[in-house]
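Objective 1.3, modelling of assemblies. Example input:
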Amino acid sequence: MSGPGRRLPKREHQRVLGGPGEELEKRLEAYLEAGPEQAPERVSAAVRARVAATEQRPRGLRLLDSNLFRVLVFAAGTAALIGAFAVLGQTLRPEAPLGSRGPAAASQPSTTAGRATVPPEALQGIDLPRPPKSLLALDQSVWALLDDGRVVQLDLTGDLLRTVRPSQARPGIDDRLETDGVTFWTRVGHSWTQISKEGKAGQPVQRDYYVGPWTVAGGVLWLAGDNLHRVDPAAADDRIIPSTLVHEMTSAEGFAWAILTPGSLIRIDPGTDEVRNIPAPAGQPSEGYRGAWDVAADASGVWTTNPSNNETVRRFDRETGELVAEIPAGERGTVRRIVVAGGQAWALHPAGGLIVRIDPQTNSVVDRLQLDGRIRDLTVAAGQLWLIVDDQLVRLKLES
Amino acid sequence: MGRDLVAAARAGERQAFDVLVEQHVDRLFAVAYRILRDSQAAEDAVQDALVSAWTELRSLREADRFDAWVMRILVHRAYRETRRRKYRGEVGLLEMEVQAPTDDFAAIGDRDELDRGFRRLSAEHRAVLVLTYYLQLPTSEAAEVLGIPQGTVKSRVHHAIRALRGAIEAEARPLPRRVRDEL
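Predicted structure (tokens):
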């Protein structure tokens, strides 16, 4: 390495980026190493001249160069535009008869549940040997994947029961836990390992091709990257299922569900490999920028977030694929991730620390919780919300 | 030393700022070139970033953060430069790199392929790859430079690598017959 700048130790760098074995990453490093590392002399000279020129301007004019001035101009312009539109809207809007309600208000579920800010003292922290990356509640335990590739089992009070190291693989940025309801699997870099409820790790399945989204359904691993692979560890079988690029995957009740890159939803039957397209809700596009973003499923159905479609959450029947409900869940924050846990659906805006709880009984938003921090994962066990907020595992008692 | 220089420059000492320029210009140019893949655009972005740093220096609260702060300004200038050139229809400009004499044909072909793929990425993807793979900044510092959360840096790296892979493969795929017939 001869490039300028402060750098991470090689080992740390590879850990962050997901392993040294990636041929493309090595090629990219070599490619970026090539190229100029010194600026032509004229650049410094030009900067000196321009800086000197700003000095020679009168102080009042120098204010025009500052970002503060630009921000003020922008704010004033925006305020003027908003004012103009408001006046125009009042002028053009027909008067509604007293007591009448608009059609949208009559047909849509309530989204008026207020946003409650969760105070830090309401969160009960649980110390782990390393920062957690992924969570899973199974029977009377909570499992957490740590950033060094170890998996820990906790009892419902948060006490550590056991630690499992499923493989020696180097952790990657996409590592997480997935369950088929009976056992669960962990991904560590390019290695997938099945772990029993008793903490017994199976033989790791290693793949050197690129894998992004993945899930486990019907005892089969579904690995999506440049192709969608159906990997049956028992039969040592690895087949490609014809499909376009997969954006996200999940599984429930024996089926694998995937969002394809254009935003459409499909269901795959592991028994027959039948791929079924889930049609768009009537009158609405299901592909492109208004399509699905994330998908989660359980017995209650299949849930997707659609951040570019009025920030809605859609619920589909897992047997027929029909749209059961379209729930406006967003509120000044884009809900992107969806998790189903504890019999409820949880739409998340991870970066914004927002959790939107949706009740499947009424298909409506029950409440919105605002946390101070980035939410990395969520599950429910023993009536408590278990969360990874930034790098910390915390619990939050749920109001029924 | 660096802290004193920043403090002096913030107090309005132009000579101190000139020293800071000399200390940082190569690094900034190297990064700008790798994001923009064009020498002239990189020069423009570096100039604009440094002049902007001079006019905004008073807003820098911690002198120790000057490196990350000026790099952040540069990345935003690079974004702006990309947009400006796009609107002007200068996207297609390709600047050939001078190859080292020891390069064989396979290495040149490999670099060409990667170069075409890299140029197809968005400026945001190119920037995050340059910061993590070229400067090899830790995630926390890359996040500070880009002004995004650490988790977003990781996911952006992931998506950038994925997009790069897709772009290279798209380059390698044969054109559909209908398109070929149009050529």
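Chain B touches chain A through 58 residues (CB under 8 Å).
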